[in-house]
């Protein structure tokens, strides 16, 4: 979230997704009725410190931190919100006054506050007391949020013990006073929403989200045999791949493996935040990787994919859509496809808040790539396309084109077709990664004759040179070519 979006919300009217509440010195008495109602419906935004018309009244400065602490603790308290759904409000300075913003996703569970169920409409919050209305809410969530499917036979012994220690370390590094840190493993599973009671009274137990986050690899494969994430590099070999990582493990380790893949294959740039150097690659792709994991429809057999091309990264995952077509970063309503998993990743510090991935990427992509725009496309599959900085292959392509266009003379007496140009690019890429190759080695790798390689070299003689003796020497890139590649 950013101040501009908060200002945009203040210009809107209260609705099923938006509520203003005056809260000068204390939390409003009906705050958790609205929280409960929005969790049970479609989520939304609550702004504390504004009147019903969006006029900023503010929250008294010395009460802000106490109110935030109360929201966090009460949302994690089964006596106030059942099941708990831990919240972390944000504070904004608007018009010189403090506002508290609470962002709420739609939850995959049915929530109560003070033992009453609330739902949301355009007219506000209302109690749901009739059994058939409660059943309607439960059925709607069961059908839409498959992360909440209960597996009664799933036990604590089906989870990886070492993941609990890893999770606590991640939470601790993100928030030393996080209330989950004092819980044992079973309590952590229950309060985070990974253990669920069906409000229709049919069953209770650990959920699909629990298996995906903590399950042993064989347990995950038994529950959803199709599950995998494919990470590929398709720069030189676009028909198959240059590198391939197949991931079939829990979501916590999946995130780490994908981020390691990113660091091995993508260029990085740095920018300054408060005089501190921050990695643009990490800042952008932690959001892209988290979105790929958090918002996937896991009951769909289609794999999640993360593909690195020469000029872009494309991701795709099965989706339970909440709209259709390209998403406009300046005008969209965030919607969690797996709210329990999303909430869990927020606690780990791997997601800032709902919708942060699109907003962060859109804000930083020009600084990172220097060109283009990021694309986020909603549909039965959710797709992203992230432009990359001017790449080595683009530099080589442009340089080869310049050279061959300027060298149509008595040495190169005809135009160079596209097939030859692509081979010239591949030849330079080979020498860039393995300097000192000989003609025989280049011919073998490019699957052409030695005569063809020698003919090709004449076309780009300004870019390569032979060094060493006739018997032991090989071909290297010239200083001209190396200097061009050194800029990428």
Descriptive overview:
The chain has 488 residues and is of the alpha+beta class. It folds into three domains: 1-144, Methyltransferase, Cobalt-precorrin-4 Transmethylase, Domain 2 (2-Layer Sandwich), CATH 3.30.950; 229-387, Heat Shock Protein 90 (2-Layer Sandwich); 392-485, Arc Repressor Mutant, subunit A (Orthogonal Bundle), CATH 1.10.10. 39% of the residues lie in helices and 20% in strands. It has helices at residues 3-10, 31-40, 61-75, 131-144, 161-174, 185-191, 208-214, 217-223, 251-265, 280-294, 339-347, 356-369, 392-406, 418-433, 439-446, 450-459, 479-485, and strands spanning 18-21, 44-48, 90-94, 97-104, 112-113, 116-121, 124-128, 150-151, 195-197, 204-207, 229-234, 243-247, 270-273, 276-279, 304-309, 312-318, 325-326, 375-378, 381-387, 464-467, 474-477. Strand 11 and strand 12 (243-247) form a beta hairpin. Helix 9 (251-265) packs antiparallel against helix 10 (280-294), helix 13 (392-406) packs across helix 14 and helix 15 packs across helix 16. The longest helix has 16 residues, at 418-433. The model is unreliable at 408-414 (pLDDT under 50).
């Amino acid at each position: 979230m950013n101040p501009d979006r908060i200002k945009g919300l203040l210009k809107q009217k209260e609705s099923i997704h938006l509520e203003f509440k005056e809260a000068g010195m204390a939390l409003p008495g009906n705050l958790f009725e609205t929280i409960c109602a929005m969790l049970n419906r479609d989520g939304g935004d609550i702004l504390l410190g504004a009147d019903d018309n969006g006029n900023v009244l503010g929250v008294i400065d010395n009460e802000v931190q106490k109110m935030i602490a109360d929201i966090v603790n009460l949302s994690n308290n089964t006596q106030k919100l059942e099941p708990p759904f831990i919240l972390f409000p944000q504070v904004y300075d608007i018009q010189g006054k403090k506002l508290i913003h609470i962002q709420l996703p739609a939850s995959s569970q049915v929530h109560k506050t003070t033992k009453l169920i609330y739902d949301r409409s355009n007219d506000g919050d209302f109690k749901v007391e009739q059994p058939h209305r409660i059943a309607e809410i439960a059925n709607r969530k069961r059908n839409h949020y498959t992360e909440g499917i209960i597996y009664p036979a799933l036990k604590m012994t089906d989870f990886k013990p070492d993941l609990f220690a890893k999770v606590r370390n991640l939470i601790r590094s993100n928030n030393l006073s996080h209330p989950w840190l004092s819980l044992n493993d079973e309590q952590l599973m229950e309060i985070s929403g990974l253990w669920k009671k069906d409000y229709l009274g049919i069953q209770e137990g650990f959920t699909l989200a629990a298996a995906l986050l903590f399950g042993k690899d064989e347990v995950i494969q038994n529950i959803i045999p199709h599950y995998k994430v494919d990470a590929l590099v398709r720069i030189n070999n676009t028909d198959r791949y240059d590198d391939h990582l197949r991931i079939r493990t829990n979501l916590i380790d999946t995130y780490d493996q994908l981020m390691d893949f990113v660091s091995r294959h993508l260029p990085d740039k740095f920018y300054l935040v408060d005089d501190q150097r921050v990695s643009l690659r990490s800042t952008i792709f932690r959001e892209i990787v988290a979105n790929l994991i958090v918002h996937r429809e896991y009951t769909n057999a289609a794999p999640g994919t993360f593909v690195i091309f020469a000029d872009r990264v494309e991701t795709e995952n099965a989706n339970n859509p909440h709209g259709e077509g390209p998403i406009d970063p300046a005008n969209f309503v965030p919607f969690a496809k797996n709210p329990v998993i999303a909430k869990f990743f927020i606690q780990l510090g791997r997601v800032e808040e709902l919708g942060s991935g699109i907003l962060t990427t859109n804000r930083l992509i020009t600084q990172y790539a220097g060109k283009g725009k990021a694309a986020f496309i909603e549909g039965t599959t959710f797709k992203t396309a992230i432009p990359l900085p001017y790449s080595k292959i683009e530099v080589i392509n442009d340089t080869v084109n310049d050279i061959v266009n300027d060298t149509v003379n008595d040495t190169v007496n005809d135009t160079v077709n596209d097939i030859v140009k692509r081979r010239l690019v591949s030849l330079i890429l080979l020498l860039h990664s393995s300097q000192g190759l000989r003609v025989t080695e280049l011919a073998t790798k490019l699957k052409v004759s030695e005569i063809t390689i020698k003919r090709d070299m004449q076309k780009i003689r300004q870019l390569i040179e032979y060094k060493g003796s006739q018997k032991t020497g090989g071909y290297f890139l010239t200083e001209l070519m190396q200097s061009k590649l050194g800029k990428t």
